[in-house]
């Protein structure tokens, strides 16, 4: 079954004005009613780096998880964040951004790729001890704007290293929205054939006009999970000055259902969440 991961954290993190904690929690609680596989709800990172997420622990305390089938994912950028997040039994997944671009790894986490890989190994150990699952995002997985080396063979090399560390979920991330359908299909086909035991996902950024073709390209290549945000809000504030929006979840839903996938979502609750986005993201 195809998994949808809704990412309010990614939608909110680049907004300069602080969104009230109660508003964040109310919005995520509404998302929890819809039936998404996972909610990427917050991050355990330095508040200096991502001030919008400084209240993640408080937001978590306000979430009503009793009647939701959705799991929770929190982003961490280092071992300290992983240790902090791992204390919360409500959190199922820890997400770690590993860039295939040396420049972006430095911009995003202030460390080299080699140092990030060493830290990722430690975070994987924390996850195994604490009963969490590590989701590794291969940032700039479809190219980068810095002129750093990039090729599909590089992606294969990174996946091989992650497989050796026991990572079970890898999300190929188009951080700046440059992926085309042919490359999307190619990358997923290569990785899925080589590592059928790994769950591969897509964290793509896109304009609304090209979302459908990118989702279909991912499906063709064997992608099993898709990240998105309602109305396509958000983007990576560390990538470049002009944010490229997330994949609009409502468009992905339409595309996936038209392709014959039953996502088992509560459309009434989805409609209510769509209304809330106008308040959460347009009134801050």
TrEMBL record:
It comes from Algoriphagus iocasae. This is Hydroxymethylglutaryl-CoA lyase. Keywords: Lyase, Metal-binding. Belongs to the HMG-CoA lyase family. CDD domains: DRE_TIM_HMGL. One of its GO terms (molecular function) is metal ion binding. InterPro entries: Aldolase_TIM (IPR013785), HMGL (IPR043594), PYR_CT (IPR000891). It is an enzyme of class 4 (lyase). One of its GO terms (biological process) is L-leucine catabolic process. Residues 1-271 form the Pyruvate carboxyltransferase domain. The keyword Metal-binding applies. Its EC number is 4.1.3.4.
